[in-house]
Amino acid sequence: MELLKKLILLSLLMINASVAGAEPRVDVTKTPVSLTDFSMGYFIDDSQALTYQDITALPFTPTNSKTTLGTSARVTWFKVILDNATGEQQQLFVHLPHAYHVRSVDFYQERDGRLVDQQSLDMEEIDDDPLMYRGTAVYPLTIPAAQSTTLYLRSHAYSHQWFAVEVLDEQTSRRALISIKTDIALLVGMMLALVVYNGLLYFATSKKENIFYSFYLISGLVWIALSYGLIASTFDVYGSGVFKLNISLITMPIFLMLFMMAVFETKRFYPTEHRVLQALLALLCGTLIWGLFDISAALKPASSLAALMMVVTFSVSISLYRKGNPLVVYFLIGHSFFVLFNGIAVLFYKGIIAHSYLSSHGVGIGIVLEALTLAFIISHRIKILEDIRASQEELKKQAATDPLTKLYNRRFFFSEADYLLELAKNRGTPLAVLVVDIDHFKQVNDQYGHSCGDQVLVSIAQTLKTHSRTKDLLARFGGEEFVVLLPEADLQEANRCAERLRAAVQALEVRVNDNDLVHSTVSIGIAEVMVGNEGVEAALNRADKALYQAKHSGRNRLCVETPFIAEAQPG
């Protein structure tokens, strides 16, 4: 075993010799000490078994103090050489601000080739460890005057090796530890507000896209809060149990697929694109099941899967755009942001590009920008549906109303009258009808023309509507004839209503040209519906007979038709 170990070390030396150069050193002379961007070295321990004694003999590859090495560097050693050229000792604090997402980290402090301190931080057994504070590992060290200290850091990551080192003095360290992740809290807060809003929309509309979008948002905000340390700094929780929340990185695209299928109605209108999305959804669901059993392994191909998802969804969106879908252009805009920023993040997580705020926060920025665009799509779709509904209501209204007077027509009157009759039966309330006819209306048409006759019709219709009760049902039956259904009105109440209408029309003056005023009158037939014994149409026939009597009695008057009830004959 010892021989095998030596052979492994020798091969590692040969592999890294070509990339190893002069070891970078960090000067901690200047005060205040606030070093967040400097050079250090790294060594990937593929065997995951190297010790401190083994690693000191190996060459380290230069890198930046903020680095990412992808998923193939689960155990990585970092080397920082600190030079104190002052005449006084330096009390410093080494911060690992992303320690919340690793399995463990070990600190080895070496001076003059001798190990002077060793500390270990296991996230599975944190138990109020003084080295951990709000997601940041804090290692204190003292560098004597005019001396150097070499610090070895062993990082064991669950999945991606995403590492950062900061060297701070005491005052700067305190400020860094009490700082709030305002940017991340803002992103999470925005998404949480969208979750609540769309949850309410779902309960109001029962649209599936609202609930899929809400779950997409929840997955996104959980991943953002987890990956950028908000959960760790707020709840002070770590370890594999918390790491499993990275499953949200898989559920997020699943709910995005479901949202696309629902909002674009791909199953109904775009079967080819629907099958493509279904295939990708099946792959994502398989990865999700895998992640439930081994999240670390499932996350290893996550970057490649994310790239595939972006290509497929973008291609489907372009296809829907070419087929004329009115909403997909907004999805393309938002998804372009998502693809752009997530593409940058994928390159960062794979270790291809260097650390920057944009690269390290690319996923979060992309998620939020797309989430805002999806919210606009939902709102715009609601507007489209409301416009369609309003258009349908307008068509229904046009089908139910007389185009000239805007009163209800005969067809609508009878359908509504049947309902009011049933209501009167159930409540035991009376119901009456009026038949109203304009007197000598033919003379108006003959004398002033049909356009003036139409003007008189409209004016009388509005007068009847104005002086009717709110609950009355008023309709034009054709020509110069109108009918009024009076809920909760017996003959006495019907007479009062009819007289009010007759008097209002008599007082009406309609100017048909610059010089002429037209005065009109109406005759009205009245009948009370025998609720339970006849229909509204039968009562209208009786009211029409009463109208005939009013016409032959001189017009401009009311006439009541009382029902004939046969007397019982003695047996």
UniProtKB/TrEMBL annotation:
Q: Which organism is it from?
A: Halopseudomonas laoshanensis
Q: What class of enzyme is it?
A: transferase
- Which GO cellular component term is one of those annotated? plasma membrane
NCBIfam families to which the protein is assigned, alphabetical: GGDEF (TIGR00254)
Stretches assigned to the GGDEF domain = 429-563
User: What Gene Ontology terms describe what this protein does at the molecular function level?
Assistant: diguanylate cyclase activity
What Enzyme Commission number(s) does the record list for this chain? 2.7.7.65
Which residues are listed as membrane-spanning?
184-204, 211-231, 243-264, 276-293, 305-321, 328-349, 361-379
Gene3D superfamilies according to UniProt: 2.60.40.2380, 3.30.70.270
Name of the protein in question: diguanylate cyclase
Query: What cofactor is this protein dependent on?
Result: Mg(2+)
Query: What InterPro entries does the annotation carry?
Result: 7TMR_DISM_rcpt_extracell_dom1, 7TMR_DISM_rcpt_extracell_dom2, Diguanylate_Cyclase, GGDEF_dom, Nucleotide_cyclase, Rev_trsase/Diguanyl_cyclase
The entry's localization annotation reads:
Cell inner membrane
Q: Which reaction does it catalyse?
A: 2 GTP = 3',3'-c-di-GMP + 2 diphosphate
Give the record's keywords alphabetically.
Answer: Membrane, Signal, Transmembrane, Transmembrane helix
Give start-end of the signal peptide: 1-22
- Is Signal included in the keywords of this UniProt record? yes
